[in-house]
Every structure is written in structure tokens, then in C-alpha cells.
UniProtKB/TrEMBL annotation:
<dbReference type="GO" id="GO:0009451">
    <property type="term" value="P:RNA modification"/>
</dbReference>
<feature type="domain" description="DYW">
    <location>
        <begin position="505"/>
        <end position="598"/>
    </location>
</feature>
<dbReference type="InterPro" id="IPR046848">
    <property type="entry name" value="E_motif"/>
</dbReference>
<dbReference type="Pfam" id="PF01535">
    <property type="entry name" value="PPR"/>
</dbReference>
<keyword id="KW-0677">Repeat</keyword>
<feature type="region of interest" description="Disordered">
    <location>
        <begin position="1"/>
        <end position="22"/>
    </location>
</feature>
<feature type="repeat" description="PPR">
    <location>
        <begin position="189"/>
        <end position="223"/>
    </location>
</feature>
<protein>
    <submittedName>
        <fullName>(wild Malaysian banana) hypothetical protein</fullName>
    </submittedName>
</protein>
<dbReference type="GO" id="GO:0003723">
    <property type="term" value="F:RNA binding"/>
</dbReference>
<dbReference type="InterPro" id="IPR046960">
    <property type="entry name" value="PPR_At4g14850-like_plant"/>
</dbReference>
<dbReference type="Pfam" id="PF13041">
    <property type="entry name" value="PPR_2"/>
</dbReference>
<feature type="repeat" description="PPR">
    <location>
        <begin position="88"/>
        <end position="122"/>
    </location>
</feature>
<dbReference type="GO" id="GO:0008270">
    <property type="term" value="F:zinc ion binding"/>
</dbReference>
<dbReference type="Pfam" id="PF20431">
    <property type="entry name" value="E_motif"/>
</dbReference>
<dbReference type="Pfam" id="PF14432">
    <property type="entry name" value="DYW_deaminase"/>
</dbReference>
<dbReference type="InterPro" id="IPR011990">
    <property type="entry name" value="TPR-like_helical_dom_sf"/>
</dbReference>
<dbReference type="InterPro" id="IPR002885">
    <property type="entry name" value="PPR_rpt"/>
</dbReference>
Length: 598
DNA sequence: CAAATAACCG
């Protein structure tokens, strides 16, 4: 698929008297091709042309060549750079920016140091570039040193530097430092607001982000497209559809409706707030659509369980001549694994590198593991992880572990669990899965060992929490607690629902209850008041008959709640849209859109 | 050439 550049026509007519003169005149250099350069090969072709055009020592051209270097070709960029005798600050910045986008961003720090050694002073863009590199490398120590240097050289309050400082600290997990820096700004600069709002989003604090947005509005500052991106992302995190719709209106009224990225964020927001129809609407209304917009729509179909739609959209995208990127493939692979299309998924995975020039990364491998494991091809998944060209992350083993849980393969599950232990990065959920597996297999000694291990390693079980938006207010319920003002009523409603469903054949599935030392009744009780059941019951009480219930849960939905929700959708004639940790379940007429494959 | 959406498992 890669395009090859052809040189401008430069062969002069052969038998002309002025042939000698024509040879003297170097061929013109095709500057317009520079920005279209996407691979090392194209870059080398351009460099060759530059030499033919006798421009190889021309600093602006070398700078442009370095700027055009794809992130994977930084060695080449470095060689070009080293040919320049006295690089100026712009050139140092260019090289530094190249590294900050590569997979070795920390190299920017060395470039910056070399610049200072060479006696070249930084300009307004040197620190932002350096700090961006520290942020993407999550190098907080280097980031702090860069901050120190910025203070020393008088750049710390620079309007270009301050927002980057804020986002660097946030990216390095130091939201408090970011907040403190933001507080020192006079709050008159939208860009600083943007970086602080984005910092909150990146640290999963959507409510704080929205509060800052309201503050910005109250001050009469004009939000930018970037503000809208972060605000929409906050709505997506919260799953707050009503608020999201309001922001959509705001976007339209304030002239952001034609921004491709804002529309892409709208697609994502609607998809994550459970309204696939609205996402489709935004996508359909977009005038021009880039790779990201198509990807967002593919992911939207995928998380709603519409695997075939996601795939046909991908094919349509290819027909339109839009180049897929790594994220497009994550969407496609995700769609396949969540709808059981194993062979299709593997097929797409194999075309990534050759046909589309997209190098698979660890997340793509993760999708393949999920693809195989979810479909029950557990041994293959295990071998696949072991044969990877890179060190697997705990996530890959966790994917396998969770699938082993679903398919009841205790022995393989234990092996996967051990790999997570070796990597010393266990989550509470890992212990829950393996312990439940051992429990349902009657391996009580193992269960006790696992629980002991869990407390030794200080892992904690994340409490289940579900929320439901009723009349523009988000109500939160935790499993079994009584904190919500209407908790009593919700509990009683659950009792009522359970009784009614039992009469139509519902049997509580207590086989996977975590606690071993419980009697059957206690187990049923702990299951009965799972947070999603409370939220659904609350919705049944507080909304008129027929209203769709939209519930967001912080963990994966459990099997018992899943089957109960199906029955509620039938017995109470309600649609229920339940957002899991990472996907949606649409319950209607006793069935779920996931087809019980999740 | 500052701020930046989309992202595998739980």
C-alpha cells in the first residue's frame, strides 16, 4: 500500500546544444512531498533527491527532513542531525520533538542537555518539547529536573511551558503537583484550564474536570475544541448521557460542530453512554471522516456487541481508501473476540503488518489472546503468550485467567495465575477468579491458600459499585451497603423482584460466591444485594413504566446479575442498558445483546 | 512548534 515517490521529470532532452548548461542546473526539490513522508524508505528517497539537487548541506532542508522522520526512524534522523555543523535551537527542538514521539522519548533529555552543552539557549518551545517527552515516558524524576531547569532559566511561568508542566505532572501520576501549579496561574488562560481539565480526565476524575469546565464558563473564558474533547471524555467516563446530550447541544451552538475530532469524541461519548443510535447519527452527519472517526465508530459497534457491523464498517473504510491504524485494529479485533469470530479475527490480525503496514503491539496481542481464550481455545492462547516476541504484561495472563474461569479450566487457570504472581502485579479480581474456580471444584485447601496469599500481598477486593441516572441525578449503590437515602426501598424492591422472578423460574446461582465459610442462605443474601441489582431495583421504583434503565457498573457484571437482568427485562417489560467495565449489555424481552458471550 | 479524542484483561 505504501506510495513511492517519483522524482520530478528531470531528464533533459538529449541532443540540445545547451546540454552542458542543463546538467549544471540542479533538479528542483519536491518540497511538497516532505510532509507526506510516512516511512523510512520514502525519507531516504527524498534524501537522495536532496543530494541530487545539491541541497544536502542546506540546513532548512535537513531540518525539514528530520521533522518528517517517522517516530520509528529516529536513528536516521540522528545521522542527518549529526551532519549539521552548528545546529541552532530550532534544530535541537526538532530532534528532541522527534524523540518525544518515538518509543524512546527519554532521549529528548539527552538532546536537551547536549544543546545546553553546545552553548545554545532554549527558546519557548524547548521546554514544552522536553516536558512532553518526560510525560510520555512517565519519567517523573527527569520531569522534576526539567521543571527545576525551567525555573532556573526563567521559563517556568512562560505561557507555553506552564500548561505542559501541568500535563507532565498529571501524566506522571502527580495530580496534586499539577493542581498546585494550576492554582498559581491567575486562571485567565484557557490553555491552562485545558491542560488541567485534561489532567483530571487522564487521572480518572471526570467530576473534577466538569467542575473546572463550569468554572471556566463562569469566568467568561471561551472554551476551545480541546476543552470540548476533554469535557466529552468526562461524560464518557461517567456514562452520563443526559449531560453528554447537553454538551452536544453546546458544541453545536458554539461552532464546534465541524471539528472532526470533536465529532469523534461525540461518537465515543454516545457509545460509552449507551446510545449507539446517537453515535451512528453523529458519524452519519460528519462531512469528512478520518481514520480516528472510523475507528471510534468501529469501537462503538464493538463494545455494543455488534461484531458484524464493526467488521463491515471496517471493510467500508478500506473501500473508501482510509488507512487503518493500530487503534482501528484494536477495535476490529475486540469486535471479533466479543462476538466469537475467532477465524475472522485471526485473519485480520495476520493482515496487519503486511497489507496495512501496522505493527502489532502488546494490546493487539492481548486481543488475540482474548480471541482464542474466550472461545475456549485456552491451550493455544497459552502458547501464543509464551511465544510472543516481547515480555507479556500481567494483562495478557489475566485475560487468559478470566477465560479459564469462564470455561472452568482450573489447572490452566492456576498456571496463568502463577504467571501474574511472578510478575508481581496482582489485582484483587485475580484472586477472586482463581479462588472461585477452586471453590466450585471443591479444592478448599487451595481456596484458603489463595485467601492467605491475597492478604500477604495486600491485594484488596474492589467493592462493586453501580450507578443509575434518574432525573439528571446520578445515584450510586455499593454492594450490600445502606448509604444511599433510598437504600431500604431499593433492598425491599430487590426482594420483591427476586420473589416474582423465582415464580417464573429464576434460580440464584450461588456457585461463584467468593466467601467459602458461608451457608447457602448467606451466599444467596450476598448475591441478592449486588450493586447492579440495587441500581436496577431503584430504577424500577423511580421511573415510569417502560423507561429504559441505564446502569453503569465499575466491575464486570456477574453471571447471576446477568441472568436476572434478562428476566427483569421480560417480567417487568423494561429495556436495561448496563455498562460493564468495558462493554454494554442491552437487555430486552428476556435476551441480552451480548448473546451471553462476554 | 503550548493544551489533545479513539486503546487488550479485571
Amino acid at each position: 500500500m505504501s506510495t513511492t515517490f517519483t522524482a520530478s521529470p528531470l531528464s533533459p532532452a538529449k541532443s540540445r546544444p545547451n546540454e552542458a548548461i542543463a546538467k549544471e542546473t540542479p533538479p528542483p526539490f519536491p518540497f511538497s512531498l516532505l510532509t507526506k513522508c510516512t516511512s523510512l524508505r520514502q525519507l531516504q528517497q527524498l534524501h537522495a533527491l536532496a543530494i541530487k539537487s545539491r541541497l544536502q548541506h542546506h540546513p532548512p532542508l535537513l531540518t525539514k527532513l528530520i521533522t518528517s522522520c517517522p517516530p520509528s526512524a529516529m536513528d536516521y534522523a540522528r545521522r542527518l542531525f549529526d551532519q549539521i555543523p552548528d545546529p541552532d535551537v530550532v534544530l535541537f527542538n526538532t530532534l528532541s520533538r522527534g524523540y518525544s514521539r518515538s518509543d524512546d522519548p527519554i532521549q529528548s533529555v539527552a538532546v536537551f542537555a547536549r544543546m545546553l552543552d553546545a552553548g545554545v539557549g532554549p527558546d519557548d518551545y524547548s521546554f514544552p518539547t522536553l516536558l512532553k517527552a518526560c510525560a510520555s515516558a512517565k519519567a517523573s524524576e527527569e520531569g522534576r529536573q526539567a521543571h527545576g531547569a525551567a525555573v532556573k532559566l526563567g521559563f517556568a511561568d512562560n505561557i507555553y511551558v506552564l500548561p505542559t508542566l501541568i500535563s507532565m505532572y498529571a501524566e506522571c501520576g502527580e495530580l496534586n503537583v499539577a493542581r498546585a501549579l494550576f492554582a498559581r496561574t491567575d486562571g485567565r488562560c484557557v490553555i491552562s484550564y485545558n491542560s488541567m481539565i485534561t489532567a483530571c480526565v487522564r487521572s480518572s476524575r471526570p467530576s473534577e474536570a466538569l467542575a473546572l469546565f463550569r468554572e471556566l464558563q463562569a469566568k467568561g473564558l471561551e472554551p476551545t475544541d480541546v476543552t470540548m474533547l476533554s469535557v466529552l471524555s468526562s461524560c464518557a467516563l461517567l456514562g452520563a448521557l443526559e449531560l453528554g446530550k447537553w454538551i452536544h447541544e453546546y458544541v453545536r451552538k458554539n461552532g464546534f460542530g465541524s471539528f472532526v475530532k470533536v465529532n469523534t469524541a461525540l461518537i465515543d461519548m454516545y457509545a460509552k453512554c449507551g446510545s449507539l443510535e446517537d453515535a451512528i447519527g453523529v458519524f452519519g452527519d460528519m462531512g469528512s471522516k478520518d481514520t480516528q472517526a472510523w475507528s471510534a465508530m468501529i469501537v462503538a459497534y464493538a463494545i455494543h456487541g455488534h461484531g458484524s457491523k464493526a467488521i463491515s464498517l471496517f471493510e467500508e473504510m478500506l473501500k473508501e481508501g482510509i488507512k487503518p491504524d493500530g487503534i482501528t485494529f484494536l477495535g476490529v479485533l475486540y469486535a471479533c473476540s466479543h462476538s466469537g469470530k475467532v477465524e475472522e479475527g485471526l485473519g485480520y490480525f495476520r493482515t496487519m503488518r503486511g497489507r496495512h503496514g501496522v505493527i502489532p503491539g502488546i494490546k493487539h496481542y492481548g486481543c488475540v489472546v482474548d480471541l482464542l481464550a474466550r472461545a475456549g481455545r485456552l491451550d493455544e492462547a497459552f502458547e501464543f503468550i509464551d511465544g510472543l516476541p516481547m515480555q507479556p504484561t500481567p494483562i495478557l495472563w489475566r485475560t487468559l485467567l478470566s477465560a479459564c474461569g469462564g470455561h472452568g479450566d482450573v489447572d490452566l487457570g492456576k498456571r496463568a495465575f502463577e504467571r501474574i504472581l511472578e510478575l508481581d502485579d496482582t489485582h484483587g479480581g485475580d484472586y477472586v477468579i482463581i479462588s472461585n474456580m477452586c471453590a466450585s471444584d471443591g479444592r478448599w485447601e487451595d481456596v484458603n491458600r489463595i485467601r492467605q496469599l491475597m492478604s500477604e500481598r495486600g491485594a484488596v477486593k474492589v467493592p462493586g459499585c453501580s450507578s443509575i441516572e434518574v432525573a439528571n441525578t446520578v445515584h450510586e449503590f455499593f454492594s450490600g451497603d445502606g448509604k444511599h437515602p433510598q437504600s431500604e426501598a431499593a433492598h425491599r424492591m430487590v426482594d420483591e423482584v427476586v420473589e416474582r422472578l423465582k415464580s417464573v423460574g429464576y434460580v440464584p446461582d450461588t456457585s461463584r460466591v467468593f466467601h467459602v465459610d458461608m451457608g447457602e442462605e448467606e451466599k444467596e443474601a450476598s448475591l441478592r444485594y449486588h450493586s447492579e441489582k440495587l441500581a436496577i431495583a431503584f430504577g424500577l421504583i423511580n421511573t415510569p413504566p417502560g423507561t429504559t434503565l441505564r446502569v453503569v457498573k465499575n466491575l464486570r457484571v456477574c453471571g447471576d446479575c446477568h441472568s436476572m437482568a434478562k428476566m427483569v427485562s421480560m417480567a417487568f417489560d423494561r429495556e436495561i442498558v448496563l455498562r460493564d467495565l468495558n462493554r454494554f449489555h442491552h437487555f430486552k424481552d428476556g435476551l441480552c445483546s451480548c448473546g451471553d458471550f462476554w
